[in-house]
Amino acid sequence: MKTKLITALRTAATAMENGTFYYEWNVPSCCNCGSLFCALTGKSAAELRAEIPKRIDKDEIGSWENLIGQHCPITGLPTQKLFRELFSYGLTQVDMTNLEYLRDAKVIARMNLNESVREEIPARRKWYQMRTAAPTVLVKNVRVKLDHENKEHVIAYMRAWADLLTEEGAMDSAPRELEVAQVS
């Protein structure tokens, strides 16, 4: 089970909720991924800021999604030390980009969302919604309009992800406990 990751997700959500972690999506050290990094490593946002490259190239400001994509062509390992550290906790590139934009459908389906972010999609429009690149996620015929820059949405997403990982970990360990009980 990813105990450290689960604890960090809950810690980051609580820190954002009670204001002990300054949240600002446009600042890489204070955004969705930055808050998780700080909670996982115990480093401050200022320490993280020093590790994040300022620019990927002349015209592009580095976002987490762009930074994550930089890998060694031989080993496949991330070129940035901070990503090697994050991935050592069981995170993947997909996990980080999903966290940056709140777009993992399994996590969203697990969230307790209020009606302001849910919209039922009529059956005749489902095919169209699945073909368009709308800033929403389709979960069980419901279009979810999460705002990845909204602190409340990020908090709910992190808690739902932690709950999902906990449930997955419990499912992983259940068969082993059953086997031990049968052998005894």
Report on this structure.
- The chain is mainly α and 184 residues long.
- It has one domain (3-112, 148-183).
- It has helices at 3-18, 32-41, 45-51, 64-68, 81-87, 93-101, 105-110, 126-131, 151-183; strands at residues 55-57, 60-61, 118-120, 137-139, 142-144.
- A hairpin with a 2-residue loop joins strand 4 (137-139) and strand 5 (142-144).
- It is globular and about 40 Å long.
- Mean pLDDT is 75; it is low at 120-135.
Which features would summarize this protein structure in a list?
three-stranded antiparallel beta sheet; mainly alpha; single chain; 54% helix; globular; 184 residues
How are the elements arranged and paired?
Elements: H1 3-18, H2 32-41, H3 45-51, E1 55-57, E2 60-61, H4 64-68, H5 81-87, H6 93-101, H7 105-110, E3 118-120, H8 126-131, E4 137-139, E5 142-144, H9 151-183
Antiparallel strand pairs: 1-2, 3-5, 4-5
Helix pairs in contact: 1-2, 1-9
The 3D shape can be described as: globular
Cross-sheet strand order for the largest sheet: 3-5-4
**What fraction strand?**
5-15%
- Report helical residue fraction: 40-55%
Number of helices: 9
Q: Count the strands?
A: 5
Rg over CA atoms: 18 Å
| Integer average pLDDT | 75
Q: Which spans have pLDDT < 50 for at least 5 consecutive residues?
A: 120-135
Describe the structure in brief.
Helix content is about 55%, strand content about 10%.
